[in-house]
Amino acid sequence: MQITDDLNQLLDILPESIRTPLEQQEQLGSLVEVVMDLGRIPEARFPEGAKYLSDLPVSRNDLNYCIARVGEFSGDNRAGIEQTLHRISAMRNRQGEIIGLTLRVGRAVFGTIGTIRDLVERGQSILMLGRPGVGKTTALREIARVLADDLHKRVVIIDTSNEIAGDGDIPHPAIGRSRRMQVATPEQQHKVMIEAVENHMPEVIVIDEIGTELEALAARTIAERGVQLVGTAHGNQIENLIKNPTLSDLVGGIQSVTLGDDEARRRGSQKTVLERKAPPTFEVAVEMIERQRWVVHENVAETVDCLLRGRQPTPQIRTISETGKVTITRELPQPQGLPTVAAPPFGATGWRASGQMKALPMQNRGDRPGRRDRELGSEHKSFEQMLEESLYSQSYRGERSRGVDDEFAMGASGPNGEDLPLHVYTYAVSRHQLDRVIRTLSLPVVTTKDIDGADAVLALRSHVKNHSKLRQMAKNRQLPIYTIKASSIPQITHALKRLLHMDGDALEEVTDLSLFSQSGSEDEIEALEEARLAVEQIVLPKGQPVELLPRSPKVRKMQHELVEHYRLKSCSFGDEPNRRLRIYPA
């Protein structure tokens, strides 16, 4: 990275009593800011800590010396030094007099966005988040230069405080061929944003510090006109924006939705839930945790939806070494704290290259196997070959399923020694899903509408909590209550297995795919078989995540339920028609 800081020009505006001891500091090259408060000892702040610069407190003459050598302070109490990136911020008393100065060092760091350059080149709108001082403005400046000089786009910077392109009428060379529009007062930023689009025909708008509702609305208006946005906002993480009613529109806005009874029961949630209101203004979000460690949310809409539904997203963790090598890992949402899984090589594409399933060579039909095929041997069969062989072995698994029925015929009993079939009273559980599980797995279970003739109760957990009458009736009849979180096939299957004391190997090895298929078509069975093989051949034995082939939303839902049957987690990602499933180890 190449760093330009024009530090001498900042030192020239300091009084000699402060400048001389500052120049003697060994850490001068990493100076962050100089703080001068009236009646207090001046100090220099470095990344490692602060150091006092004098034994004498700052006087009004010292402040006036600095003020006379910088530009005029604007409405946000900021000024600069012409042709530099330094920022001088003022503190005033109640009469409007300046009683304190913060002299912030501005640096142009060329090459600082190597971590996310591939995202910048996609043309998607990018939102940068992070605490003050982490380098958001520096990254914004470099993104503007790369877009203008390397990608030859028309870039306009909305420079409210002259912090991106420096003070004065001539912008700093660090922004390259980008054009800069200055803003008279911070309150006018949203108007200048719209003016830039209407008057100057930009392909990219760069904005620093989106902080008001009007600015968020202007950003959405610009995005809907097809202009790429690159900006920063107040907040460390996406969760901060979701909770901020002023800026939540940047990530799609949040609204309260009342669900119908069936939908609430299906989700296993309350009837009133929070949902995303619209597509996000910014498609990509980057959380700048540290200068060399950034968290990337490639799909902001998917991340927000996960957070609103109480699930943890799986963002990328991008780090850059001292040699400039970018390493990408991905956080997995497991509470057990599994280590992050290494992501594919930087710049890889395709469903195999972007996931963790290795692209194994496929045996050519009618051709002799290649040398690489022979080296891999039988242990590393191609996934397609395993899938093809497995599809022809359906009848074998059907025979094993029938073996489960034989076990019941030999005199198995219910949870309290009842004779089979077991009579189950259900509450708020999908009758269609329940009958489907019982019929497909041939379980010795009969549903009943009369609790007096039941051997056990199966109910949704959220409904049992608020139904004291049901709990009391079950207690009086000494009936066990089995609860499930959601009325899904995997949840119902596991509950019935617990009811019948079948948590062992009796059903664990038997995965009847017709249980999860809706129409039983060949495409659905093939997709489910692909998911089953991925789980049983790679995820469970090797503890590696796997990415499946792109499927339709209907088929992906079936794959999700099959993965849940194995007590694993999965998520969909990517854009249609290439949206696909990723399965994570437990």
TrEMBL record:
Membrane-traversing stretches: none
SMART domains in UniProt: AAA, R3H
Alphabetical list of Pfam families matching this protein: PTPase, R3H, Spore_III_AA
Keywords from the named record: ATP-binding, Nucleotide-binding
Tree of life domain: Bacteria
GO MF, one annotated term: ATP binding
Domain called R3H: residue spans: 522-586
Full protein name: AAA family ATPase
